[in-house]
Specification:
6-stranded antiparallel β-sheet, binds adenosine-5'-diphosphate, 473 residues, 5-stranded mixed β-sheet, Helix Hairpins, Heat Shock Protein 90, Beta-Lactamase, alpha+beta
């Protein structure tokens, strides 16, 4: 069964279970049938014998009855009178044979197919017993009748059990005869039904094969809205392909963006070296040339470092440990550290509400805060000021921790605001400052990982405010 198709397995299971069920049903019917039949046979026997017992009298002479009455009776000579038997006496009814006997076992009237076998067996009062003869089981019921004038006769009823059981046997064998046909029909319908049920699965397999064969992640499996298991599976499959497609697309774009970014400093280095090597240069010229190369090398190094950081963080399946984190303490710690940068005479102050907790990853949150503050320094004006605030607010009925990094630097133009979170994007105004354009892309990714929100407000030439809204823990 190991390497067999699901269709084959379903069919086999279906067939086996059906045969077992049908077999069990037959057995139950057969057993219950014979039990019921046996008790019915005995009930008949009692009923017939008792009814017959009510139809027997003793009369001294036949003259006691008028002629009209006498036609309805049978008179059998018995001792010094007659046994008078109503014509309603049932000799043979429902396979039960009844006969009337004297005390000594002499048959007076009636039917007894086992006369020879039973005449040696003495009567016993009101008892039911069994007799086997010629492989047949008989139920026998003896009933003692005390008639007038202390006359005693016996009514013996005999019924064959086997006759009826044999009928049941016939029914069973007819049923057994049909069983193989039934099994074949069951297996065929199982095969057909499983084929029908598994058809969408084959469709799924075909599409998956074609996707992997042609390496075409744009293909999707056609689904309907039936909502059954296979449709759900197809939907999950489609979603998976969609995600893969997006991941590959992102990677492709990243690689092309990254090589594009690296090409610029490389081109500068090449041009500069060519310029230096063109002819003999003065010491001053060499120095200038190497300075340019050094600056470009530094730019490439920081680009590569940022790119590594970014890709490491952006790995789709990377799981970050999220825990309840004291955001207040984290913001305070980083603010204190970064205050010391004091670049361009810029001062940094903070207003932090204590004990604001969020669910997050401390390492990522630190990086987010650092990136925002270092941008505020980088794009700040001489002797400017950075204000970091952390406060609690209520948004749409939910408590949020709001982090703001405000600067009075160069600000951004309206058209830049929607692009600054894209990888490698740098506004024209910031081209002169060092940077890779990856810092805010990283910030955005961290915000997403924390299911937070980020907003930027800026006035060109006046300054910018970056605001992050975290769900409170
Ligand atoms: P980088 O700073 O390395 O260029 P970022 O992704 O951190 O890259 O920022 C992208 C761009 O957004 C920057 O080049 C700059 O144009 C703009 N920007 C970011 N922060 C500020 C800020 N505080 N003030 C003005 N412009 C900013």
């Amino acid at each position: 069964m190991k390497n067999k198709s699901i269709r084959f397995r379903i069919t086999v299971w279906f067939g086996v279970v059906l045969v077992l069920l049908v077999g069990l049903t037959f057995l139950t019917i057969r057993l219950a049938g014979s039990v019921v039949l046996r008790s019915t046979v005995r009930d008949y026997l009692f009923g017939v014998v008792e009814a017959n017992a009510d139809n027997i009298w003793y009369v001294k002479s036949m003259e006691e009855d008028s002629e009209e009455e006498a036609v309805h009776f049978i008179y059998v000579k018995f001792e010094d009178g007659y046994i008078k038997i109503d014509e309603d006496f049932m000799n043979t009814v429902n396979d039960v044979n009844s006969a009337v006997y004297t005390q000594t076992g002499e048959m007076l009237y009636g039917e007894n197919p086992l006369a020879l076998e039973t005449d040696r067996i003495p009567f016993a009062e009101t008892r039911l017993w069994k007799l086997s003869h010629n492989n047949m089981d008989y139920n026998i019921y003896d009933r003692k009748l005390n008639l007038e004038e202390e006359k005693t006769v016996w009514v013996r009823g005999i019924v064959s059990e086997e006759d009826n059981i044999a009928k049941l046997g016939q029914i069973t064998s007819v049923s057994l005869f049909f069983l193989p046909f039934l099994v074949i029909a069951a297996i065929a319908s199982g095969y057909f039904l499983s084929g029908k049920m598994l058809a969408p699965l084959r469709e799924l397999e075909k599409t998956a094969e074609s996707i992997s064969g042609r390496n075409d992640l744009k293909q999707r499996i056609e689904t309907n809205d039936s909502g059954d298991e296979i449709t759900r599976l197809a939907n999950v499959f489609n979603e998976m392909i969609e995600r893969l497609d997006r991941a590959f697309e992102t990677e492709r774009r990243f690689t092309s963006d990254a090589s594009h970014e690296l090409r610029t400093p490389m081109a500068v280095i090449r041009a500069e070296t060519e310029y230096i090597l063109e002819k003999d240069r003065t010491n001053e010229e060499y120095r200038e040339g190497f300075d340019v190369i050094k600056r470009q090398e530094a730019r490439m190094s920081s680009l590569i470092e940022d790119m590594l950081d970014y890709t490491r963080m952006d790995q789709a399946n990377r799981q970050y440990e999220m825990a309840e984190t004291d955001l207040s303490a984290l913001v305070l710690e980083i603010s204190e550290q970064m205050m010391r940068i004091a670049e361009k005479g810029i001062s940094l102050t903070w207003e932090i509400v204590p004990d604001l907790f969020v669910v997050g990853n401390a390492m990522l949150l630190s990086r987010l805060i650092q990136n925002l503050i270092s941008n505020a320094y980088r794009y700040g004006k001489e002797n400017g000021h950075i204000l970091v605030t952390l406060e609690e607010d209520i948004q749409d009925g939910a408590h949020v921790a709001v982090l703001r990094v405000r600067d009075d630097g160069i600000g951004m133009k309206e058209e830049d605001l929607s692009k600054i979170f894209d990888r490698f994007y740098r506004s024209d105004a910031s081209r002169t400052t060092r940077g890779t354009g990856l810092g805010l892309a990283m910030v955005k990714r961290i915000v997403e990982l924390h299911e937070a929100e980020i907003r930027v407000d800026s006035i060109f030439g006046e300054g910018s405010v970056f605001t992050v809204f975290f769900k409170k823990a």
